[in-house]
Fold:
Amino acid sequence: HATGTPQGDMCELDAMRKFFGAAQLPLLGSSKGTCGHTLTAAGFAGACKLLLAMKHGVIPPTPKLTRPLDKNIITAKTAWPEAANGAPRRAGLSAFGFGGTNAHAVLEQHSPTAAAPPKGLGGPPAGAKLAIVGMAARFGTLADLTALERAVHDGGDGACELPPRRWRCLAEDAAFRESIGVPEQSPVSGCFVDKIDVDYERL
Structure:
């Protein structure tokens, strides 16, 4: 994610060290150093960078990074390491933003000759250290997956007017309005996230 602050970056780095183990930390990079903070489009920018790197087998460096916090942070063009047993290339992608973006994905290299995965959901493989057993999401005013499912069936959406607290700067941005085709006096509507509930007692 690379917040650009020593405290924020170190917090994320420490979390990854605890999860993977310091000796097995994967190679790390960020799209923010290339194209800046893209807010709600950060996940798309990161996915483009990751998929191109996966396709060409080259991990691009984070530009202008001279003092990385860890040796596994890529500072020079690096060949994608070959996986053991010929396994496909895999990589994790995370996108966070003060506007509410909080997404994580694991991407795998496409192989046209690979066998199709089995249909349906199965249990975690034996000895798995991590299993996803639930999912939650928020889309604008749709606070959970049940609300999203209802909106899909009813033909609704999670759009609302631009929240005045978190997104007030965008309402006055003429270039932003022009890019989305909204006249100056018209309200800006979209699936904006204005509130995220966190159960601090469980952290």
In short: Residues 181 and 188 are 10 Å apart (CA to CA). Helices lie at 6-20, 32-35, 42-56, 145-154, 168-171, 174-180. The chain is about 25% helix and 10% strand.
